[in-house]
Automatic annotation (TrEMBL):
<dbReference type="GO" id="GO:0006635">
    <property type="term" value="P:fatty acid beta-oxidation"/>
</dbReference>
<dbReference type="InterPro" id="IPR029045">
    <property type="entry name" value="ClpP/crotonase-like_dom_sf"/>
</dbReference>
<dbReference type="InterPro" id="IPR001753">
    <property type="entry name" value="Enoyl-CoA_hydra/iso"/>
</dbReference>
<dbReference type="Pfam" id="PF00378">
    <property type="entry name" value="ECH_1"/>
</dbReference>
<dbReference type="InterPro" id="IPR014748">
    <property type="entry name" value="Enoyl-CoA_hydra_C"/>
</dbReference>
<keyword id="KW-0443">Lipid metabolism</keyword>
<keyword id="KW-0456">Lyase</keyword>
<protein>
    <recommendedName>
        <fullName>Probable enoyl-CoA hydratase echA8</fullName>
        <ecNumber>4.2.1.17</ecNumber>
    </recommendedName>
</protein>
<comment type="similarity">
    <text>Belongs to the enoyl-CoA hydratase/isomerase family.</text>
</comment>
<comment type="function">
    <text>Could possibly oxidize fatty acids using specific components.</text>
</comment>
<dbReference type="InterPro" id="IPR018376">
    <property type="entry name" value="Enoyl-CoA_hyd/isom_CS"/>
</dbReference>
<keyword id="KW-0276">Fatty acid metabolism</keyword>
<dbReference type="GO" id="GO:0018812">
    <property type="term" value="F:3-hydroxyacyl-CoA dehydratase activity"/>
</dbReference>
Amino acid sequence: GPYETILVERKGRTALLTLNRPKALNALNLQVMNEVVAATEVLDRDPDVGCIVLTGSEKAFAAGADIKEMRPQGYMDMYLSDWFTAWDRLAQLRTPTIAAVSGYALGGGCELAMLCDILLAADSAVFGQPEIKLGVIPGIGGSQRLTRAVGKAKAMELCLTGRTMDAAEAERAGLVSRIVPAGELLAEALAVAETVAGMSAPVAMMAKEAVNRAFETTLAEGVRFERRLFHAVFATADQKEGMAAFAEKRPPEFTHR
Ligand code: HXC
């Protein structure tokens, strides 16, 4: 394929994107960022893709931003090249995304997982924002998304001490939706993806938009936003199909429009 640091496969209506820099524990250099963003934006425009799964290796989802690449940079280098800003585009994808995390998800790796919509963890997963131990702070949204996910108490402790959380603690704290035995992680992530991809694509996009709005606005505005989308889904062919299938006691066959 056109990419050197990631693998992209299609399985039904699911796209599987695997970070593939095993020698560096999938450290996220600029090439990885550009390839992940480019690949997911192509998949996002493909009507045959209903869900994107992002995963790493058994040992590491991603051990963070590439420290060797960052080490020599100065303020002007970082500012002028707008270091890491392209990662924000992952949060703008309309297609639902699932992070399947096994092993280390540290620093930028934890931030990348938090950029996804659903976060599934293997029992081997380790999460943390250890940037402070390198004399820096999170730079791909970690201080914001971790705090929204687990609250100030844990986020502050993790960001100030650099200590990591195992999968059980991450689940208790609400960072991950579920823990799966490591050997079953990928199969489970693909099964969840196929379930999501089998739903109406526009309705899944709207559900995602509505949940994400909860992080951007007041409750009253969020509820109004939801109500607009709720009314809008009645313009879809899939609403007619979904409700007809229920009445006829058969599984729905969504046309994704
Ligand atoms: C570059 C990395 C890397 C990273 C690991 N490697 N993490 N290279 N950037 N973030 C490389 C190692 O240098 C080594 O390469 C190889 O991967 C294997 O790693 P080891 O350390 O030998 O493995 P192990 O002993 O099993 O330890 C695993 C680990 C450790 C605990 C995950 O690698 C580690 O602490 N990594 C750094 C984690 C971290 O600090 N992440 C946050 C980065 S800052 P060689 O060539 O030596 O064999 C960040 C900032 C975001 O993400 C925004 C800030 C601006």
